[in-house]
Amino acid sequence: MIRVIEFLRAARGWRRAGLALSAGMIAALSMPPLDLWPLLFIAIPVVLFMLEGKEREERLPSFFLGWCFGFGYFIVALHWIGFAFLVDAEAYLWMMPFAVGGLAAGMAVYWGLATFCVALSRREGLPVALVFAVSLAAFEYLRGVLFTGFPWAAPGLASDGMGAVAQTASLWGMPALTLLIVLWAATWPFMWKGPRPHRAAALLIIATLPLCWAWGSYRLSQGAVASVDGVRIRIVQPNISQDSKWRDENARAIFYQLLEMSARAAPDGASPTHIIWPETAVTFLIDESEAAKVELAELLGGTKTLVTGALRRDINRSGDGEDDKVFNSILTFDGSGNVVARYDKWRLVPGGEFLPFEWALEPLGFRKVVTVPGSFAAGPGPVSLAVPGAPEAGFGVCYEAIFPDQFIDPQKRPGWLINVTNDGWFGNSTGPYQHLAQARLRGIEQGLPMVRAANTGISAVIDPYGRTLSSLPLNGEGIMDAGLPQSLPPTLFADYGELIFFTALLLLLALSFIL
Question: Which residues are designated catalytic?
Answer without folding.
Answer: 279, 345, 398
